[in-house]
C-alpha cells in the first residue's frame, strides 16, 4: 500500500531494496555454495559432518539470539533439541503420524515448553538463570532415561521413519543435506530479519539496560519469553530433523554436555551475530574432527578426555584474543585492512 | 496556592507516599501535585529521597503505601513499561544509554511504542516493515534535531562526550512521546555552557507542551527555569511553591544550611558567615 507509493516517490528505490533485504547477498552466496556441495562431494562422511553443522547452526543461532542479543543465559538449550527429537520420534513411530506433522509438533511443543518454563525462570537473572536452565536440562535428561515405555530409556529410541517428499522417501545423505540446509537457510534468513528490526533493537536494548528498555515502553519480560520460545523452536526443529535423519535417538545426545557445546559454538562464532552461529558451529565441528585424529598421533592411547582439554584451550585463547568471536573478529580485521588500504592509496595519490 | 488549584490542571498527583529501605524511611508521607504544562523542580539535599520518589513514580520501585494518579488513572502498581506507555517517561541520573548502539538507534529504541512490528512480521519482512523502519528513522531524527545531535546520528552512543550522552537520553525519552517527562539531575556533570543550553532545551520541551518534572541538586539552576518547586528533606516534603516563596522559606534554608542555623545576626563572626551563606543561596533576599 504505502510501499508502492514510496517506490514511485523515491528515486533511491534500489538502495531501499538493499536496505530492506540486508545480508541478502550473503544468503544468496551461501545458497549457491550449498547447492553445489553434494553435486561435487559424494563422500558420505563429509556430508554427514555438514549435516551436523547445519543442525548445530540452527541450535546455535537460537542461542545467539537469546544470549548475544537479548542477554539471557541458557545452559540448557539441548532440552529443546531433545523435546523436538523425541516428540517427532514418538509421534511418527509410535503413533504413526506423518513425519512432517510430527516434526512441526516437535517445534511447537519445544516453543510451548520454553514459554511456560520462561514464565517461571525469567524472574531470575545472570547465574541464577543459568542454573535454572541447567536444571531444566537435567530434568529432561531424567525424563528421557526414566520413561522407558515412551522413550526407550537409556538405550534409545529406534525406528524413526524417514521424511517423505511426495512419493519420494528421503533416505540418502544428499537428500538430508538439502533438507537440513534448506531449514538452516530459513532459520538464518528469519533471524537476520528479526535482528535488523524494531524487535532486534528492543532485544539489544534490554540486554544493555533492562531498566532503560522498560522506561521507553518495552515489555522486557514478554520479549525474553518470545526470544526464548523462538530459540527453543529452532532447537526443536534441529531435534526433529536429527531424529528423522538418524532414525535412532538416545538421551545422551540431549544432555548438559551438548548444551555446553552449543554455548562454546555460539561464543566461538561470536555471540551477537547470526552469521557467527553458522561460523561457530562449522569451526567447532571442524576442530573436533581434526582433534580426534590429531591427538591420536601425539598420544597414541588417547581417550576422549584429552580432546576436551585441547578444546578448552582453544576456547580460552579465543575468549582472550578475540572476545567478540571469530566471525566479527575476522570481519573487523578485514575492515581495518580495507580501511588501511584506502588510506595508503589515498596517500600515494595525494 | 496549590490548595485551590482546579483539578483539570493537575497532571500527576501523589498521595501519602511511603517507601522504606530496610528501616530507613526514604520517602515519608509525601503528597505532590504536578501542574500540566509547567516545569516543576524537586530539590533537596543529598539523600533527601528525590531519586527514590522518581523511582516510585516511574514504577521502578514499588510503593509501600499511598497512591499515584496520572490523568485520573491510578498508575501505582503498574510496571515501568506500562507507565511509560501512558506517557510518564524518565531519564536517569546515572546514564542508561545503549552504548553499543548508534545515537540514532538509541532514539529509535525510544520510538518503540510508535512501531507495531513484532517477531513474526519482522521475521517474514512483511510489507510495511521497511516503511515503518523509515518512519521510526525519521521520527528519531526529528528528536535528535531537537536536542542538537542530528549530525552525530551514526556515531556510537558510547563514543560521545558525557554531556552529549545526556542529550541522547533526553532525545530518547522525548521519542517515547511523554506527557510528563521526568529528568533526574539532567545537569549533573555538565559544564556551565552545557548547563545553560540544557536550561534552554528544558524550556523548549515545556513550550512544546510536555510537562517537566526534574530533580536537581543545584538550587541556582532550578530557580531560573522552574515554575514550581518542591523541597524534600529526609524523605519529607518541607516546602513547595514558586521559586521566590521557596527561597525565603526558613525550613528550606535550614535544610540546606544545617540544623543549628538561626536568624542572621551581624554581631558575631558566625552570624556574618551565615549571612554570606544566605546571600549565596538566594541573592535577592539578603537585605532582610
Q: Write the CATH fold name of the domain at 10-87 and 178-248 in chain B.
A: Rossmann fold
Distance between the termini of chain B: 24 Å
User: What string gives the helices and strands of chain B in order?
Assistant: EEEHEEHEHHHHEHEHEEHHH
The counted number of beta strands of chain B is 10
| Biggest beta-sheet profile of chain B | 6 strands, mixed
The portion of residues assigned to helices of chain A is: over 70%
Percentage beta strand of chain A: under 5%
* Global morphology of chain B: globular
Chart the SSEs and their pairings.
The complex is a heterodimer of chains A (350) and B (288).
Chain A: H1 2-9, H2 13-20, H3 24-40, H4 44-69, H5 78-94, H6 99-121, H7 126-146, H8 148-151, E1 157-158, E2 164-165, E3 168-169, H9 173-195, H10 198-208, H11 210-215, H12 220-246, E4 248-249, H13 256-269, H14 274-298, H15 304-321, H16 326-349
Antiparallel strand pairs in A: 1-4, 2-3
Helix pairs in contact in A: 3-9, 4-9, 4-12, 4-13, 4-14, 5-6, 5-7, 5-12, 6-12, 9-12, 13-14, 14-15
Chain B: E1 10-21, E2 24-35, E3 39-43, H1 50-58, E4 65-70, E5 73-74, H2 80-86, E6 88-90, H3 103-110, H4 119-123, H5 129-147, H6 162-175, E7 180-184, H7 192-207, E8 211-215, H8 219-225, E9 228-233, E10 236-241, H9 243-247, H10 250-257, H11 269-281
Parallel strand pairs in B: 3-8, 3-9, 6-7, 7-8
Antiparallel strand pairs in B: 1-2, 1-4, 4-5, 9-10
Helix pairs in contact in B: 3-5, 3-6, 5-6
Walk me through the structure.
The complex is a heterodimer of chains A (350) and B (288). Chain A has 350 residues and is mostly helical. Chain A has two domains: 23-258, no CATH class; 279-350, no CATH class. Chain A has helices spanning 2-9, 13-20, 24-40, 44-69, 78-94, 99-121, 126-146, 148-151, 173-195, 198-208, 210-215, 220-246, 256-269, 274-298, 304-321, 326-349, and strands at 157-158, 164-165, 168-169, 248-249. In chain A, strand 2 (164-165) and strand 3 form a beta hairpin. In chain A, helix 3 packs antiparallel against helix 9 and helix 5 (78-94) packs across helix 12. Chain A starts with a helix and ends with a helix. By secondary structure, chain B is of the alpha/beta class. Among the domains of chain B are: 10-87 and 178-248, 3-Layer(aba) Sandwich (Rossmann fold); 258-288, no CATH class. Helix content of chain B is 39%, strand content 22%. In chain B, strand 7, helix 7 and strand 8 (211-215) form a beta-alpha-beta unit. The radius of gyration of chain B is 21 Å and the shape is globular. The two termini of chain B are 24 Å apart. Chain A binds chain B through residues 1-3, 6, 16, 19-21, 190-191, 193-194, 197-202, 204-205, 208-209, 211-220, 226, 230, and chain B through 58-60, 79-81, 84-85, 89-90, 92, 96-101, 105, 108-110, 112-113, 115, 117-119, 122-125, 127-134, 136, 172-173, 175-176.
